[in-house]
Model the fold of this input.
Amino acid sequence: MTRRGLTLIAALGLVAALAAGLVVATSPRQPATAQDAAAVTVQRAHAGSATPTLKRRVVLLTIGSDSGAPKFGRGGAMESGRADALQLVIIDTTKRKGAVVSFPRDSYVPIPGHGTNKINAAMAFGGPPLLVATFEQLTGLTIDYYALTSFDGLTDIVNKVGKVQVNVDMNLRDHFAGAFLNKGKRNLTGGQALAYARARKTLPGGDFDRSRHQGQLLLGGLTTYQRQVAEDPTKVLTWLGIIRDEVKTDLPFPELLRLALLATDVPASGIKNVPVPSVAGSAGSASVVRLQPGAYSLFGRLRAGKLG
Done:
């Protein structure tokens, strides 16, 4: 394989999101039982819409749900939970560049038909379609696909690929999330990746640091994939097999194939982790995150195709 690729950037979108997968699956998979449910759901953002051209810009919303994780005692369906990890993955297929734009879950924004509320409530109000509509109204970007996962999904995928390398940016001793990590490049297990994506209460920047760490995990999944394939090209088959087992999608095979080819054409070095400019605030008695003017300037640059 002469070019290394972005064959998965969502399955680490979870919660963590972090693991949700910009994924490129090679065939649809339907879970046989509730216990055998897919770790990641990848769908078009708009039901019945025409196939995205994939000729210039592709926008993926990665969602980490706080539900649908029986291993962690969290019942319900992923689609009806709160979205506790949220990133827009934007790929410019012409410039071969991209950005992972991370949003704090408590961002206080307008939700169509539901007034102004924390952005993570949109999915609980109306599933992924309402969350997509909320992001599109907020940013002015058209979302092509969404990737949804849970705590279980993140840990399962990371463990199957054999750890994910992340440049941990601070010493962590977070008992609430179970995150005990030292600063530096670390190969994280599924449990450690989830803890890194969830840690918040003991971090200096709280939810802002957590949001940044979730973006780091997404990019860490891509970097890990590229490193493994560079060392052993047959690892491509390993990753594709895992994705086939763990991803639920109704996308037709030709579309999945085009995504796979796109994924091989964007170097990891060209994808930036961009936290949305925001500050802590309040709305009545609730603690929220308010977007700063710089956030709307960022959205304008993204709409104009400026990912730097």
Notes: Helices lie at 121-139, 151-161, 190-198, 207-231, 235-246, 253-263, 293-303.
